[in-house]
Amino acid sequence: MGQIAAQPRIERREVRGEPLTLSGWRITPIKRVVHIAWPGGVWLWQRPIAVEIQEGESLRRMPVHNSTRRAILGLALSAALVAIVASRRRRTRGRREQEREPNG
Fold it and tell me: Which of 1, 3, 35, 55 is the least buried, fewest Cβ under 10 Å from its Cβ?
């Protein structure tokens, strides 16, 4: 008989990279992995989220900010704002022209 279709499997986890020791500091990169598997394939997305820095007994976690994503989001929001303002101006201009036309 036929196989039963497997359900898509979604995993999201943090993965620590190989630590690097430099001048008494131990630096460990951390990434977020999103893994989606379905019967026809796999989608894998990885992005850096933080760096852990250990110096002696002190451990600090410094987040990695995605400035490219922020810039693209800012551009998209700006473009949407310009489109909304232009659309409203066109509508307002059309209404003014209709009000100026004599009712004949």
Answer: 1
* Domain count across the chain: 2
HSE value, Cβ hemisphere, 13 Å, CA-based, for 94: 6
**What is the residue range of 18's domain?**
7-64
Report if pTM > 0.85: no
25, containing H or E segment: strand 25-38
Sign of CA dihedral 32, 17, 15, 9: positive
* Arithmetic mean of pLDDT, 4-30: 90
Contacts of 48 (CB under 8 A, 6+ apart): 29, 30, 31, 64
% residues pLDDT > 90 (the chain): 66
* Residue given tokens 């630096």 in the structure block: 27
Residues 88 and 57 placed together within one structural domain of the fold: no
How far is Cα 73 from Cα 65, in angstroms, rounded to an integer? 14
Q: How far apart are CA 68 and CA 23, in angstroms?
A: 31
Q: Are strands 20-22 and 9-16 parallel, antiparallel or unpaired?
A: unpaired
